[in-house]
């Protein structure tokens, strides 16, 4: 008779921009997503999809499930040390209280940094391993914009990252790691992880070539005998930690030679694509000019570097001010983070007219606040948008009209994922000539079906978007583009 394994699941996740002036504390986690044990919703979140996946396995009689805490904070600045220690210790106490456990599955991000720890996931995995011992299967899902550290590799049995950017496959990733963990527990495979350091950092969207074909090929390779999983860690250029950078991770069935060979091969292939993978970023005025000239509507302009999903505030006014100065209307703008301005709009009420100062509050590089006479068009408490099957909170939101432009002001920092950020606030996105979204690429999958064209606007601001010149203090090795060829072997320049 097959033994049913006891599986413990938990999730602590955020992405830390170590250059950001923001700070992340427990309030940020609770505002974004926080679930006590057994309170996780039925719908998955980006980093906690292991919960609904494991619940289905328990319903099928495949596992006995023990749930821990699940929490996620929107990407931001350094995590308050007390907050990190509280969350870490809470999960560890839940694991200890669970009794004998056969499998631990964690929903992590992989780029979390606290005031005193530059590898929070590694520290957590190391503590989990110390509790459960060497024989227990310990697995974790990762966001590809993470740091694959040696401490994580030393203490996990299985690590698997989402393949897609935008991250449309986070549920599939959780399903895959659960299958692998069960197979390892039952002895039908012996996972061996083989990483390769590509020694580079770049923007690697899978929504376009050449990354589309690269990822599709990885998916085919995963079907070959002996290969259990292949993950591409893009890295997170806004995280100043020693092991920042792009890596390939191959997991084989007890075949380290195959794993090392394949991860190296794929890593060098990716290195050869360096500098060719980013979207066509254009400057502020070029983006506006292209939008005005387009005959296909709506035009979607992505303000790629004022992206709250990269840990910045999302309150830059640079693009909005340029649009106002040039008299452009029939436009909807999502969004500007400004809780104080939202509060004033709620006080004024729908239809209220007021002199409002909004945006440009948190960083010297985000532009000055905008002072304007505005009309409050709509007020929504606890607004939401979609990201796949997930519901992402926006907090209380106000829609204001200023000189023919409708601007969404929100109280919870979050990037734009879906056109329903507009429709949920009473704006028909298809009726607008131009839509502005603060996001680097996560908007793409949901907006592409309605967009006449998409323009990526590269506007320098608070985000450290040039790894060749970013002021890294802790990066421990040479990587491209800081050096031309950081690999020892002879490669094309």
Description:
This protein has 493 residues and is α/β, with parallel strands linked by helices. The chain folds into 2 domains: 6-272, 3-Layer(aba) Sandwich (Rossmann fold); 284-457, no CATH class. The protein has helices spanning 26-32, 50-59, 81-97, 120-132, 150-155, 170-185, 211-221, 256-272, 284-293, 318-325, 339-348, 420-423, 444-447; strands spanning 6-13, 33-35, 64-72, 103-107, 137-142, 158-161, 191-197, 227-233, 247-253, 281-282, 299-303, 331-337, 353-358, 370-387, 390-402, 405-410, 434-437, 453-457. A 9-stranded mixed sheet has the order 10-18-11-17-12-16-15-14-13, sandwiched between helices. A 6-stranded mixed sheet has the order 2-3-1-4-5-6, sandwiched between helices. A 3-stranded antiparallel sheet has the order 7-9-8. A hairpin with a 2-residue loop joins strand 14 (370-387) and strand 15 (390-402). Helix 3 packs parallel to helix 4. The longest helix has 17 residues, at 81-97. The N and C termini lie far apart (59 Å). The mean pLDDT is 96.
């Amino acid at each position: 008779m097959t033994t049913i394994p006891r599986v413990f699941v938990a999730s602590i996740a955020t992405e830390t921009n170590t250059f950001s002036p923001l700070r992340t504390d427990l309030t940020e986690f609770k505002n974004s997503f926080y679930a006590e044990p057994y309170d996780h919703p039925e719908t998955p979140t980006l980093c906690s999809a292991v919960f609904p996946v494991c619940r289905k396995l328990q319903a099928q009689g495949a596992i006995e499930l023990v749930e821990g805490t699940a929490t996620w904070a929107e990407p931001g600045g350094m995590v308050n040390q007390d907050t990190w220690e509280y969350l870490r210790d809470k999960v560890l106490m839940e694991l200890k209280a669970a009794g004998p456990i056969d499998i631990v599955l964690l929903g992590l991000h992989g780029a979390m940094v606290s005031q005193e720890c530059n590898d929070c996931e590694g520290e957590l995995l190391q503590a989990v391993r110390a509790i459960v011992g060497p024989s227990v299967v310990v697995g974790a899902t990762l966001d590809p914009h993470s740091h694959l550290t040696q401490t994580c590799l030393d203490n996990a049995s299985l690590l698997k990252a989402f393949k897609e950017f935008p991250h449309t496959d986070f549920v599939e990733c959780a399903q895959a790691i659960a299958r692998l963990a069960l197979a390892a527990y039952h002895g039908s495979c012996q996972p061996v992880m083989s990483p390769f350091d590509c020694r580079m950092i770049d923007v690697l969207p899978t929504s376009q070539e050449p990354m589309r074909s690269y990822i599709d090929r990885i998916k085919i390779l995963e079907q070959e005998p002996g290969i259990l999983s292949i993950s591409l860690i893009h890295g997170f250029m806004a995280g100043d930690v020693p092991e920042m950078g792009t890596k390939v991770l191959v997991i084989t069935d007890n075949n380290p030679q195959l794993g090392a060979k394949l991860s190296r091969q794929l890593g060098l292939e990716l290195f050869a694509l360096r500098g060719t993978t980013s979207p066509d970023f254009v400057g502020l005025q070029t983006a506006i000019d292209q939008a005005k000239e387009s005959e296909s509507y709506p035009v979607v302009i992505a303000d790629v570097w004022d992206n709250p999903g990269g840990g910045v505030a999302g309150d830059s006014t640079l693009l909005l001010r340029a649009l106002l100065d040039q008299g452009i209307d029939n436009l909807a703008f999502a969004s500007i983070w400004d809780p104080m301005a939202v509060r004033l709009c709620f006080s004024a009420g729908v239809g209220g007219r007021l002199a409002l100062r909004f945006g440009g509050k948190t960083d010297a590089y985000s532009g000055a606040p905008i002072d304007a006479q505005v009309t409050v068009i709509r007020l929504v408490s606890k607004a939401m948008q979609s990201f796949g099957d997930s519901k992402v909170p926006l907090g209380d939101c106000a829609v204001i009209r200023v000189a023919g432009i409708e601007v969404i002001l929100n109280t919870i920092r979050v990037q734009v994922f879906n056109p329903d950020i507009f429709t949920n606030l009473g704006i028909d996105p298809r009726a607008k000539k131009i839509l502005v979204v603060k996001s680097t690429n996560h908007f793409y999958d949901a907006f592409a079906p309605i967009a006449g064209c998409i323009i990526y606007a590269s506007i320098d601001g608070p985000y450290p978007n040039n790894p060749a010149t970013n002021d890294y203090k802790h990066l421990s090795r040479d990587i491209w583009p800081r050096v031309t060829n950081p690999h020892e072997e002879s490669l094309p320049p």
